[in-house]
C-alpha cells in the first residue's frame, strides 16, 4: 500500500511541476517523509527528481537556453555540495521542522506585495543558483526559489521549463553523489527513489496536457493550499 501511495503522489507531484513549473516536490516530500522517515526522505526525493527533471528537460530540449543555465550551475553546485554535507550531521526532528517551515514560507513569499520574479539577468543567475543550491541540499528541493530567477529572464514557456529542469537535473545528480558519500542514499532508498521517478516521467507528460485545459491560477491555488497544510503538519505534529 505504501508503494501504491508513493507512485500516485509522485505522479501527481510531477504533473504539478510540469503544469505550473514547480511545487511538485513540495507536495511529495511530506508524504515521502511519513513513509521512509525525514532523514532518508530528502535523499530519496533527490533521486526521484532526477527522473522528473530529466523528462521535463527532454520534452523541451530543443529550446534549452545554455547560457543562463551555466551561470546558474556555477552558483548552485558548490553551495549544494556544502549544504548536502551539512545535512548529514543534522538531527531528523530539526530537519522535519526546517522543511515544514520552508514550505510555508515559500507560499507566504509568493503572496507578499513583491515581484514574483527577480530580474538580474544572466550574471544574477549565479546568485540565484547559490541560494537555490544551498536550500536544495537541506530541504530536498528549492524549485520555487530557482523559478524566481529563471522567470526573470523572460524566456518563452517551453524554454523556461526546459532550462530550469536541466539545471535542476544537474543539481540533483550532484547532491545524490554527496548524499551517497555520507551513506544517506541506501539501496532501499535508491530503489524507492527510482520507483517514484518512473511515476514522475508519466506525470511530467500529463502535466503538459493539463496545462492547456485548466486554469493555471486555480490549480496553483489548490497546490499552495496543500503545501501549507503539509508544511504546518511537519512543523507542529512531528
Automatic annotation (TrEMBL):
Subcellular location: Cell membrane
Membrane-crossing segments per the record: 69-88, 94-112, 124-152, 158-178, 190-207, 219-237
Main localization of the protein described in the UniProt heading: membrane
Keywords annotated in UniProt: Cell membrane, Membrane, Transmembrane, Transmembrane helix, Transport
Membrane topology annotation: Multi-pass membrane protein
Family: Belongs to the 4-toluene sulfonate uptake permease (TSUP) (TC 2.A.102) family.
Protein name: Probable membrane transporter protein
Native organism: Hymenobacter ruricola
Amino acid at each position: 500500500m505504501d508503494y501504491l501511495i508513493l507512485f500516485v503522489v509522485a505522479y501527481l507531484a510531477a504533473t504539478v511541476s510540469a503544469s505550473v513549473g514547480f511545487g511538485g516536490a513540495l507536495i511529495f516530500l511530506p508524504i515521502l517523509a511519513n513513509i521512509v522517515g525525514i532523514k532518508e526522505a530528502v535523499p530519496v526525493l533527490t533521486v526521484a527528481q532526477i527522473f522528473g527533471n530529466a523528462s521535463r528537460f527532454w520534452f523541451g530540449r530543443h529550446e534549452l537556453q545554455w547560457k543562463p543555465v551555466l551561470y546558474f550551475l556555477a552558483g548552485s553546485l558548490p553551495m549544494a555540495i556544502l549544504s548536502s554535507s551539512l545535512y548529514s550531521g543534522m538531527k531528523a526532528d530539526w530537519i522535519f521542522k526546517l522543511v515544514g517551515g520552508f514550505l510555508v514560507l515559500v507560499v507566504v513569499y509568493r503572496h507578499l506585495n513583491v515581484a514574483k520574479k527577480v530580474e538580474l539577468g544572466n550574471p544574477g543567475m549565479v546568485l540565484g543558483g547559490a541560494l537555490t543550491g544551498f536550500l536544495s541540499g537541506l530541504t530536498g528541493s528549492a524549485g520555487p526559489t530557482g523559478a524566481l530567477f529563471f522567470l526573470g529572464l523572460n524566456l518563452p514557456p517551453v524554454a523556461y521549463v526546459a532550462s530550469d529542469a536541466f539545471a535542476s537535473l544537474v543539481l540533483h545528480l550532484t547532491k545524490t553523489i554527496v548524499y551517497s558519500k555520507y551513506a544517506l542514499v541506501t539501496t532501499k532508498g535508491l530503489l524507492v527513489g527510482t520507483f517514484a521517478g518512473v511515476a514522475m516521467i508519466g506525470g511530467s507528460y500529463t502535466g503538459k496536457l493539463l496545462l492547456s485545459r485548466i486554469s493555471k491560477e486555480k490549480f496553483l491555488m489548490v497546490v499552495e493550499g496543500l503545501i501549507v497544510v503539509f508544511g504546518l503538519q511537519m512543523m507542529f505534529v512531528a
